[in-house]
Amino acid sequence: MNTAETHDLITSNENLGVPPKPSKAHQTACDLNPLSQPQEIHSMNTYEQKQAERKERYEQLAQKAESDSLATLDRAREMSSWIPPGQPILIGHHSENRDRRFREKIHNTYGKAFKESEKAEYFARKAASVGTGGISSDDPQAIEKIKAEIEHLRNAQDQMKKINAVIRSRRGDEDAQLDGLLALGFLTNEQAKEILTPDCMGTIGFARFSLSNNNANINRLEKRIKHIEAVRQRAPVEIKTDNYEYREDGDENRVMFIFGGKPDDATRTVLKKNAFKWSPRRNAWVRHLNNAGIWAAGQVRKALDAQ
């Protein structure tokens, strides 16, 4: 059977607290990700609240753009109705120029309606994407959430190993293999039978790369925890000059430049060239606090100090 599908069988058992999936046809290997599973209900932290507000803001912008698009489209249609069907521009007539300008205005009004519709679709996509990028290092509970994901993956790893061990120990006897899988206690009869269904290569159970990939994800997440801990434990840096203030803020997870007012064109060019973005909330130009961000900040400081 397909390896991605067998992953789903493991992650939908009761021991992991995951309810049965409505349709296997809609299951993918990403179901191993605990973020896609029901989580314990808790009040939102500050980061989650900001994400919710951001999503709501995009939704409101999408609704406004859609409303503006429909209103503009109605206006364009009404303007078009003032010209009789098939009515040509009367060349040489005193109304020619006025007629051309009016038709051009109709054309531009339709164009504006379509642009507003595209804007509505853009903001709708932005709203839908909020919170779908995994666990952000900006989240105060990032470490706890990553640890929960690691535990989920370790449980899946252990279960995959147990299933493969049962299949190997009872090779050639499908009934015995089925009984052995059911005896593990975390598979339904349907799931166990599906695991024993050969894939396109004629193999059953979990392929070796499934376990190695899952283990690699565990190692990657453990390294990420160490990185987040190092950033949060990092001593804050604050450097003030006559032209700017530079900070490395572990709580904000940002390197940032603060200016007394709007920086000049040359300064903004240097900041943008080094991937710094303006943050109205922080009133600063910022990047994530990591090795790349610190290096980029060094390049900006060199350029600014040389001015």
From TrEMBL:
InterPro entries on file: DUF3560
Q: Which domain of life does this protein belong to? A: Bacteria
Q: Where is the composition biased (Polar residues)?
A: 35-49
Region (Disordered) residue spans: 1-30, 35-54
Question: What's this protein's name?
Answer: Uncharacterized protein DUF3560
Q: Which organism is it from?
A: Advenella incenata
